[in-house]
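Below is a complete specimen:
___
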Amino acid sequence: MNFFDIYDKNGSTKLIKDREKIYSIKEIMDCVKPVLHKLKNNPNKNAVIISENNFDFIINFLASVFAKKEIFLMSDRKKLFLLDFEYILLSDSSLEGGNTKTDIETETPDFNNTFINLFTSGSSGKPKHIRKTLKNLFSEAEDIYEEFNKYLQPQTEIITSTSPRHMFALANYVMLPLLYCDRFVINTDEVIYPDSTDLGRKLFISTPSFLEQFKKHGVKLGKKPCLIFTAGDKLKKEIYEYFSNTPVCEIYGSTETGTIAYKFSYDSPYRCMKGAEVSTDDASQIVIKSPYFMEKQITLCDIIENHGEKFYLKKRSDRIIKIQEKRINAMEIEEYINKSEYVDSCYCVKSGDKLGCAAVLNEKGKLFYLEKTGGRTKLIKHLKSLVKDKSEIIPQKWKFLPEIPKNKTGKVDKEKIESLFAKNLSFPLILDVKQEDEKCTIKMVFSNTCNFFCGHFDEFPVLPGVVQLYFAHLFAEEMFKTEISKDTVKKVKFSHIIKPDEELELVLEKSGKNIGYTYRTKETVCSSGTFNIQE
């Protein structure tokens, strides 16, 4: 039962749950029409949606479709400057004053001539523009429903931890219920923490990086989802095992191709979707034909072992880095380093004219790092030795991080890693992180090899105050997923020196529009202050 065919005929069908209220299609259209009225009165043909709230996104999206606008979905508002055309900007404030009913005529959209534009950073970090029709998206949703409806109950709630401005959530969280609005209810609550929302009997749209948080924090699902869809990065074997009593479906695809294949276990091959035809080119790269996109076919850089309707993903071949006129495969170097008994995971990037490696150490690696006689130096030497005989280029810059940064789609945040190397600042070793809703405690050690100890002071090195402020600011933004004004730190107090190789706790506490920080060693408070959250 298509939303666009019944929106003015079957107003009683329930489609959206926003907090405690469940909206019927008639009530949804009452919210859509004021925005639609504004869009129809605007001659601009392009609508850019940057809504972060899921309910607002759906209202803005529907209004743009009915207004026959060309729709652009931007996941990062900081990149709006890349759009070189005029547009109407629809954000979370688009609905302000929009509860007044507006009498306005609507008609069923032309699915083949309603265009949706998405942007992806891909492997290069430069946004790639992808254009699809509403028909492409509905074709994908039709096949998703046919493939997975056996897991679903009547009026299944769909909830997500990722943004519908990305292709994966757009197809599964928005298009699927719009196409089968008599079978689904969209739950617009934001899933921010693993234990913050009841997922019982729901279809949960998530990413590998978010699912990893369940295992990391030991969160068990009391009431289990009927199905979990995940995409964005490879799902680790231990995560499959952690959710062993819940069907977890790992999606294979991309923003360009949509959902191409899926699997339910780590070792099994991917099974192709009904509308996806998969083959390989001379380099064994996957070639896809499908009604889910406008092109005749798309070739991705992934190397597969093809078995007709099933295939095994062997490796990605799109992370070639050129350094000192030599071309290297970053993934191969990561594979060598990941074989170390001290490393959980790593990611390599180009940093200037050198190769940088961000690595996450396991407990054994942390103990090695903390050895009093040059542990960090010895560890780096060991990791370099794993690559030395296999590549002309080996990592010369190293960052040891608590985890590899991921974006909301679950993919590695390459830009963030590159920015960390660009700062040329040594990082502390993170020993442990404990986070509650409004409080976070991070245990760390600043090694005596950190570059900011040089000259501060030669005979008696101490951790500079500006470095303490920098990392308090960095971790506060990271842990609470917010932006903090650097110029509004207040109540700063330095009460005790911090020495190299000293185990340290950074305690971050959020209160309203402030985040307070405190550094301490055992029971001694070393420094403290408060940041203002940027509005």
